[in-house]
Amino acid sequence: MTADPLTPLDLAFWNLESPAHPMHLGALGVFAASSPTAAAHAADLLAARAAAVPGLRMRIRDVWQPPAFGGAVREPALGFDPGDHVVLHPPAADFQTAAGRLMERPLERERPPWEAHVLPGEEGGGFAVLFKFHHALADGLRALTLAAAVLDPMDLPERRPRPAEPPRGLLPDVRRLPDLLRDALSDVGRALDIGASVAVHTLGMRSTAALTAAPTGTRRTAGVVLDLDDVHRIRKVVGGTVNDVLIAVVAGALRRWLDERGDGSEGVAPRALIPVSRRRPRSAHPQGNRLSGYLMRLPVDESDPLDRLGVVRAAMDRNKDAGPNRGAGAVALLADHVPALGHRLGGPLVGQAARLWFDILVTSVPLPGFGLKLGGNPVTEVYPYAPLARGQSLAVAISTYRGRVHYGLVADAEAVPDLDRLARALSEELRTLITACDP
Fold first, then answer.
1. pTM of the model
2. 150-199 pLDDT tens trace
3. How far apart are CA 190 and CA 309, in angstroms?
4. Which of 102, 304, 354, 419 is the most buried (most CB within 10 A)?
């Protein structure tokens, strides 16, 4: 396997990282088990299987030679040892507390940037595994693929062979110059549109100090599980999509949380970044991030739960009509037009500017509908975790797995000591929406 240059967006994520703001994704899987040795056996399986997964052997190396001066490549790590990445911990009294401490720690940049932490339960009947993948190594879909490769084999349909791409020359085909010029002009227009949209979204914004924080490098996680059937009941009455309901639940929970902690929700409408995957099925580029996003105001200040849902639904409809290639949420697309050295030098500045762009991240991470297992032990809960941007105190990730919705919350531990209260507010908001929809 040869060296593979990082895409511009991967390179941006690689350079956004700082010790207080690690750029890794996480997922906490909770497994049911009847054997007290199940966790140790799971750690052995993960290490053995990781050795055979090419994507997990790849490290990221900085490049300081032309023509990719300031860039980076993925390349096989010499002397790769899965034991450096799979860690069996002492029994944990609470999986979320342990996950929060582990999410604080940046991944080691000198070796393949991923880890799997096996956490036995204190009673010995179950265990959890926290997977961490650097965002430069994988987006949510790619991380799912890598994690699935070390879980128990699943019966999946064989992938159909993809037609070979025609070889590309070093110089563009002169017959394509009009198309290339048209694409370049389109890119300029898109960049101007994105920049103008970002400026508009910063006008008259009303966020809350509860969603901002000076970086402390600390992390706290929490999770909550909701019934997907309840979400569908609401959707069938109100319309829209499951995702609309899940985002509205976040808005209502934030309202409850702010009021309960005394910050107040009046006039608060924080900007939420909703990442959108641009990865095509059977992509010719399985590695690397393919992301854009939607930006919307969360109607935290709206007192009626159904009106909150209506505002979310209308905003998401407008975003979908415009598409993921334009608008304030599509800033990630601009990474393609920044040279490698620009990412290297500008990464710290861009990281500090995230607070000017959005106030909270709300992302959905897809999971397969079939059951996941490790060593024959079934997954019962899956909590996704998103990176926390500089200057922000909270990020929300959502996964649907086997009829249940899992919210994974990541917060600055010092800024949000009451994260469990927000987790409870998510459940309370869903019940409120169900009550409002009942005849």
1. 0.84
2. 999 865 444 455 444 444 343 444 444 454 344 443 444 444 444 444 44
3. 30
4. 419
